[in-house]
Write a structure and sequence with these properties.
The chain is mainly alpha-helical. The protein has 23 helices and no strands. It has helices at residues 6-30, 38-51, 66-71, 74-77, 82-104, 109-120, 123-130, 135-150, 154-167, 175-181, 184-187, 197-204, 207-231, 233-244, 257-262, 267-275, 277-291, 295-309, 319-322, 325-328, 336-362, 369-393, 403-409. Helix 5 (82-104) runs antiparallel to helix 6. It is globular and about 65 Å long.
Amino acid sequence: MPILTINNVLAGGVLLRAGMLFYGLWQDAHMNVKYTDIDYSVFTDAARSVWNGGSPYERSTYRYTPLLAWLLTPNIWLHPTFGKWLFVLCDCIVGYLIIRILRERKLSEQTAAAYSMLWLLNPQVATISTRGSAEATVCATVMAAFYAFQRKHVIWGAIWFGISVHLKIYPIIYALPMLIVLDRATFSSIPKPSLSLWGKIRYEATKQRLMFFLVSGSVFVGLNIVFYIVYGREFLDETYIYHISRKDHRHNYSMWFLPIYLKFFSPASITMGLLSFLPQALVVTVLGFAFGKDLYFATFLQTFAFVAFNKVCTAQYFMWYICLLPVIWPYNTLRLAPDTLLLIAVWFGSQALYLQQAYRLEFLGENTFNLLWAAGAIIFTANIWILYKLINSQRVVPLFKSTVDHKKTS
């Protein structure tokens, strides 16, 4: 009986997370350094406010949709760890969707199981969800949207996409490759005629694209209207506007950290934060256009670049693109040794260099701000190099084969 099966990998992923969650409870009870992420306390306090009839924004630093606080109200009336189990469930759903996506792409069961291990048996991923980070909820809705698109269920894909953008605004960058995928050649065998400019616009405005825009937009706007009616302008300020003008004085992986920190109480810091969006938006848009036909690779590149260029970068953000890694890696031509191992060493090594300086600052009280900035610049450079290597070694595989091309070859 083979050991590497889908059921075994799924079971291993569940056991890994359950074990880490229970270990976290022990560490929280017996050690000074807590396992649980501070954000989980913020989520729980916000859920308590909602349960008591108040606003989640009564809890300072709660900068998320009220939907998350509503989902976590069982933390108050059922058990304090409910939210962690919910995040673990979403984490495992992502793993299951990865397997389904790979199987739909005609990979064997054993191959799908092997690549899904990059997520399901990844201790870094399991640590983030079991510590109480909510990123797995966003990853689950994003992967559900992509899986629905892969099966040409445009309405369900649009619904999940609308929910994902409401939970966290960053998936909006995926709209471009998703619209590119929904071209007429995917759903019709009629070749593109020679048309006027207006005719070309009408030709590109397919029913599927209009459906995606209307449904996803309606879900996103509808959820926002509901929460605006309940919580008013505070909802918009804390959930969306804050992240546009966000200034974070705490050190993080972004090389924007130190310049913003030094100008924190100056209007220049706001300008600096807004200007950081320009290269980020340009790179993300170009990647979406260039690789849009291959939905998974395009969105992976977009997310990787988005995180690398972001003015704030933490380990939780890595989950946004790690969930896409198992579905693109089967089509990468890099050898395991030395190519892939070198990429892994550079990715982890650059972060280790940063964490060494962060440890000296946080625990030894040494002034390492300049070294932290330099380490952040090294992380940025390493990520750009990794991005370059991945683009050069990837075999682009369109999500759908054009029905026009299929008709020609049949």
